Amino acid sequence: FLGHQLRHRGHGALAHLGMRHAHRDRAVGVDRQPGVDLDTFGRRLLLEPPAAAEPAGRLDASAFRDVERAFASGYRRGDTRSTAAFLRANRAFRVIIAGAGGNRRLADAVAGLVDESERYLLLSLLPADRSREMLSGYRDLVAAVVGGEGSRAEAISRGQIETARARVIEALMAHPALIDMPVGIPATVGS
User: What is the widest separation between alpha-carbon atoms in the chain?
Assistant: First the structure.
């Protein structure tokens, strides 16, 4: 019952933001407007946590050395280059883990979903510097994967995706103008 109430309240909030049609009797899909498809996080939740559990114990910390440096550098709000580097590190991190499971199709799917969610992640990075928070989560997931703790890696991955989705919704609710704001990192920056 509580889950239904929370889901109903969430649908109402998303409808208020123009991201979801409000219907009493049934919920319909998120509008397919550019930049407001939060279903990407739902698809990530289906694929990414099991993909994080699969390679547990098969990777060592050296696989993450370059990504560690990029994450540790963080990003500076308003600085396109540092934000682009930070988001590239996030993508590389997710692809390393998914690819180590040995299922190329799954790794490609995870990479595609991370690419799709990049705009939303950027929205969540605009209001506040989340570098330290994300670095901590990154290190927790690396420790679980390297330590062979598949269940823990899966739980951490799930928590990260849920947190990212919540941060995006927080940013959109606090700053509704972000919905229509052209947000993105030019392909030429840092490439």
Answer: 52
